[in-house]
């Protein structure tokens, strides 16, 4: 049975390591610490799900990355769970509660950090189930 691949792209090393530990109980997890490294891993590993930070290296690199994915026929079917700590870090959050928009922010889920481990697993399972994936194992389609 195939173990599904999740790519975490986030510049917060502590967050990445904690998230990886939670997800490795069910999934194969790969990590990248910036958009450039994320692009390389995306091409090499073709993940089943991407967990993407909104703000990396002090910029909205996650915004740009999600838009690139959406425009790519090869990768546009990969679900994206976008996470942000913007409100916690700055006290300011200029986006409404659900900022998803096919042009502005083409992601499948948008969550404020921190996220509890059980909530993260639930979100991941929900997104993968849309692709016919359950509990880290592919369903016969």
Keywords:
141 residues; alpha/beta; Rossmann fold; 5-stranded parallel beta sheet; two-stranded antiparallel ribbon; 7 strands; 36% helix; 20% strand
Runs with pLDDT <50, length 5+?
90-95
> CATH topology, anyone?
Rossmann fold
Class inferred from helices and paired strands: alpha/beta
What's the average pLDDT? Answer: 82
Explain what this protein looks like in three dimensions:
36% of the residues lie in helices and 20% in strands. The longest helix has 13 residues, at 117-129. The protein has a single domain (5-138), classed as 3-Layer(aba) Sandwich (Rossmann fold), CATH 3.40.50.2300. By secondary structure, the protein is of the alpha/beta class. The strands form 2 sheets. Strands 2-1-3-4-5 form a 5-stranded parallel β-sheet, sandwiched between helices.
What is the gist of this entry?
With 141 residues, this protein is an alpha/beta fold. The protein is built from five helices and seven strands; from the N terminus they run E-H-E-H-E-H-E-H-E-H-E-E.
Question: SSE layout and pairings?
Answer:
Layout (H helix, E strand, L loop, with lengths): L4 E5 L3 H11 L4 E5 L2 H11 L3 E5 L7 H11 L8 E5 L1 H5 L18 E4 L4 H13 L3 E2 L2 E2 L3
Parallel strand pairs: 1-2, 1-3, 3-4, 4-5
Antiparallel strand pairs: 6-7
